Amino acid sequence: MGEIDTPIHFPYNVDMDRLGSFEELVLIVVGRQAGEGYAVTVRAALERDIADTISLGAVYATLDRLEEKALVRSSVGGATPDRGGRSKRFFQLTAKGVAALSQMEQIRARLVAGSMLRA
Q1: What is the pTM for the complete model shown?
Q2: What's the angle, vertex CA 83, arms to CA 32 and CA 76, rounded to 5?
């Protein structure tokens, strides 16, 4: 059996059938922002990188789902005058979130390699 047939084992049980493509993109951006990202900065990065308009509500809903799945965690920062005294909710990846991204990267690599071998 070749390397392609070797199963991938991960330290966390990430429910892959429930991790959507938009969730994956949001996870990537949250990881890049290293704990300094909040919904508005996540949306701005996504809009810049995929060159499309994204609803802020979709970003908030996705961040909430990812937190429910323990793939990200949030913390509330202090109130700022530029936001009218409202606090920002910052997000960062959890170990499970990092594992989910790693798992997706490995799955994609296996699928691409498998498709090239059959072509």
Answers
A1: 0.77
A2: 55
